Amino acid sequence: MGYSAFQLLKEGLTGNKGWRPVWRDPEPKAEYDIVIIGGGGHGLSTAYYLAKNHGITNVAVLEKGYIGSGNVGRNTTIVRANYFLPGNSEFYSHSLKLWEGLESELNYNVMHSGRGLINLFHSDGQRDAFARRGNMMCNQGDDAILLDRDGVRAELPYLDFENTRFPIYGGLFHPRGGTARHDAVAWGYARAADTLGVDLIQGCEVLDIDVDGGKVTGVQTSRGPIRAKKVGIVVAGRSSQVAAMAGLEVPIESHVLQAFVSEGLKPAVNHVVSFGMGHFYLSQSDKGGLVFGGDLDFYASYAQRGNIPMMEHVMEAGMTLMPAIGKAKVLRSWGGIMDMTPDGSFIIDRTEIDGLYMDCGWCYGGFKAVPASGWCMAHLMAEDRSHEVAQRHTFDRFRTGGGLMDEEGTGSQHNLH
Amino acid sequence: MRLTCPICGDRDRREFYYLGAADYLDRPVEGEAEATHRYLHLRDNPAGVTRDLWQHEAGCAAWLVVERNVTTHEILQVSLAKDEIRDAR
Amino acid sequence: MVELVARTPCEGLLPYEAGEAELSEIIPKRITSLAPFEDSTLLKPLKTALGVELPAPGQSVKAKDGRIVWTGQNQFFVLDAEVPALDAAVTDQSDAWAMVALGGAAAIDVMARICPLDCAHMTASQVARSLIGHMPAIIIRTKTGFEIMVFRAFAKTLVNEVSHVMDAVAARGALST
Ligand SMILES: Cc1cc2nc3c(=O)[nH]c(=O)nc-3n(C[C@H](O)[C@H](O)[C@H](O)COP(=O)(O)OP(=O)(O)OC[C@H]3O[C@@H](n4cnc5c(N)ncnc54)[C@H](O)[C@@H]3O)c2cc1C
Ligand SMILES: [Zn+2]
């Protein structure tokens, strides 16, 4: 089904009674060429690109809850390509380009808004590091502008520039960075994949993975067994549990990340802004709510909710950077389960089992990766070799220690990212 | 979330530093690459009861082994890491 | 010759008063950190000199010419009194700490806002290591209030944070009368 201005007008005038569900609700078939476990952003985009780029349409996406119930509908929606290290740099660059054409690709308004992202710096050392990052971004073909203090003041006049402890020295401006409407991205990919023939099966939990002689043969689900020639595990925070169904142990620890949203306010924050000295970042949604967050709670958790110390820390950092935010009321807070890897970078790779692939380790930054992750995972599953922009993102880098991608430079250790 | 430090008693989560799975107590033999990889990277990461290492950083500074349910945030048991190591020997 | 002038950690910052709370500086004669070895018989000279045993975790005891305060796992501070020659890890930390007294009827309300401990249930001479805001601190309950020790470099932050909270508690008090 397409959308048009005429249809909107007609439905608007006739009580919106003509809208139909935009994807089917099929019964699972006995067998598929490819089964994708997990109907989050990455699972859906994988299915879409399998059909679109590789012509493989006998595909099912098995989702234990409903489409959009995982992190894809829980994140703070920041989309950017300001990565530094080879591997991450080209991957996120590819992803941002896909974002920029996504609405026409899917014929769906995902509300992608390249409103510009500014990472603030607060010391000489931090300025140097950001200048270097900006150069890397430009080398990659993306955009970066180093702003001095007055440059930042012109864009973000509402910040506290006089803070004695953390004065603002400037910022790295990434004009093409921005946000998108998170669940619209899930719905857009779901609808587009469904249209190409992919079965989206909600309320279908995978309980076991069938392996025969080192080769995957299918899955056992809450809605019965399903045979498959190839299976992709794309379950973000649940990666360890689902991998364990095939007897695999993965380099992942699941952590909780919280986010917050204020009451709706008049447009005030036109960019995505991040504080360089406390864990705090902020944007304003199209509904007017200030959407903000900080760091992980820093303990393993599957609870999808966090604790008060990190909330307090985020609020304190927000007050430090932008005292006026103290006038806004917080409406909601929530948490999501993050699949953290030791080096903070993701994995799109084969496993030891024939026909079984994994796309995981998205940490707190996998929303922006949704298009490129699906693109590369589909390529890997269809052609059985890595796509060139994701070829460094293997399991093996941890075993060998070669090619670790530690963007933050804190060390490749579980609790440091 | 509150942890009961065996030395200091019931304390707020913010006084503690989290290191990670208690796997860190079982150091591999030096030079064993595969064991070192498992020790540093691979994790059971269960969605249920887990054992992990915390330090009472802003309190008595003791290292603790905490048994807790990571789906409910319920704390089941807290013991001193040095006692756990002693028992294991 | 340059003449060096010794300053106390909170010099020029205290005393401070707001509503029913007051904050003042304490200047111990000396602060000696003590980490005993496993063999407790090595501590005999300490007992002879100070007349008391080491306190249990979370406690402090009065001693001859001073106090002994538990300050962590296997660690104690001897305040004021001189520590005799001892087979233990002993370090002079006299100049390394800022120490203040928080008193007055509102002291507990002030602590409730800035410290994660349940301070209202501490009893006199009880000790805890905890936080004041984001600062690691040693907190001693006294008969009249609290004594707080932080690293000397944090003196100004300590006074700033506690006095800020004292103002807020005083303002709240004024509103409710
Ligand atoms: C608070 C918060 C803020 C964030 N902010 C950002 C941001 O600003 N920018 C950014 O780039 N990233 C951000 N992220 C990260 C991003 O949301 C995730 O990395 C990304 O969404 C994960 O991929 P996904 O969409 O496929 O995951 P999910 O949506 O979690 O999809 C996984 C799916 O697998 C399903 N599943 C699990 N187990 C099974 C099973 N056994 N059988 C069937 N299905 C199963 C789950 O139900 C779930 O729907 C944030 C995350 C959080 C929580
Ligand atoms: Zn303790």
Your description of this structure?
The complex is a heterotrimer of chains A (417), B (89) and C (177). Chain A is of the alpha/beta class. Chain A has 2 domains: 20-112 and 179-251 and 342-395 and 404-416, FAD/NAD(P)-binding domain (3-Layer(bba) Sandwich), CATH 3.50.50; 113-178 and 254-340, D-Amino Acid Oxidase, Chain A, domain 2, CATH 3.30.9.10. Chain A is built from 11 helices and 18 strands. In chain A, helix 2 (41-54) packs parallel to helix 7 and helix 2 (41-54) crosses helix 10. Chain B is an alpha+beta fold and 89 residues long. Chain B has a single domain (2-88), classed as 2-Layer Sandwich (Folate-binding fold), CATH 3.30.2270.10. Helix content of chain B is 18%, strand content 38%. In chain B, a hairpin with a 4-residue loop joins strand 5 (63-69) and strand 6 (74-80). The termini of chain B are far apart. The mean pLDDT of chain B is 94. With 177 residues, chain C is α+β, with helices and mostly antiparallel strands. In chain C, 21% of the residues lie in helices and 35% in strands. Chain C has a 6-stranded antiparallel sheet with strand order 1-2-8-11-10-9, with helices on one face. The longest helix of chain C is centred in the last third of the chain and has 22 residues, at 155-176. Chain B binds chain C through residues 7-9, 11-12, 14-15, 57-62, and chain C through 57-58, 72-73, 75, 116-117, 128-131, 136. The structure holds flavin-adenine dinucleotide and zinc ion (ZN). Residues 5, 7-8, 56, 59-60, 62 of chain B line the site of zinc ion.
